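Feature request, filed as a ticket because there's no other form

It would be nice if the structure record came with a short human-readable summary line next to the tokens. Right now we just get the raw output. Example of a typical job, pasted below so the devs can see what we mean:
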Amino acid sequence: LDKVRWTDVRDRIFGRIDPIAEGGREYRKSHEDNAGVTVYEGQGRFTGHKELTVSFADGRPDEVVTADKFVLAAGGRPVVPDLPGLEDVRYHTSDTVMRLDALPARMVLIGSGFIAAEFAHVFRSFGVEVTLVARSGALLRGEDFDISERFTELAAQRFDVRLNRKAVRVRSSGTGVAVELEGPSGAETVEADELLIAVGRRPNTDLLDVAATGVTTTEAGHVVVDDHQQTAVEGIYALGDISSPYELKHVANHEARVVQHNLLNPESPMTADHRFVPHAVFTSPQIASVGLTEQEAQARGVPYVTSKQDYAGIAYGWAMEDTSGFAKLLADPSTGQLIGAHIIA
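Raw output as currently delivered:
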């Protein structure tokens, strides 16, 4: 790889995404389909039972909105850890990193989940030297442990993977940033041109102060909903990342259809179906999963048998020279019903 036209790549992405976002905004504000819709562009916060106060950046007086029914679909945001020195250095999250003006020579990512795995792949593919800092002893620990183990092994061949490391401080280092770590062998320092924080996302329930209207949340901050996507307060529904631990677009789309139906048909409510939720990790190699992992089956005491097939042993894998990928299935030993499927390829 001699050169990457990074700004062309970036501008192609956001040249499509940004107009779609702006088009959606204008559609909601101006289109005849939404003649009965009032758009408030500000920060909403519950200040009482079914009472939402909206503050505006331009200094206008706050406005109070009340309603019999609310739908909470305010999503989530990247977690920014309480890391000494972070406020004094330039850093990125998944919301901002793809808008870089130029590719760095080196990037350090703090995190070990799917966000870190995907962005590590993106930037390494463009020639950036990538360091991954993980507090645990493996990457993608939320996947089946065989998948996690294989991906960790392969990632170490592409990136500088620092497992069992705790980031204790960040500081400026000339034109870049230095991350001070504590690890099994003592103190370490990793230097890079850019820092990406990728330690997860959190729902925006705190910004909305949902407790002020009686809506309850989980320990992780997600709104608690029933099978109809209704919260603990009758008439208040929630969908998407603000209530779903899956935090996946196709799940939010399903929940939106459920909420729409239940608002329009309260006499015959629809139930949300979260039994089989597939997901993928767009890294290299790519990963796909649905159903139980082996460790989840063990934790729940679910009887199971497993089967694992390396791609190298079949014609497709031979043709693609795939020596590292495999498919793993979990099944009920008495019925043969599949209860989990996991692929890395």
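Something like this underneath would help us a lot:
The chain is about 25% helix and 25% strand.
Residues 291 and 340 are 4 Å apart (CA to CA).
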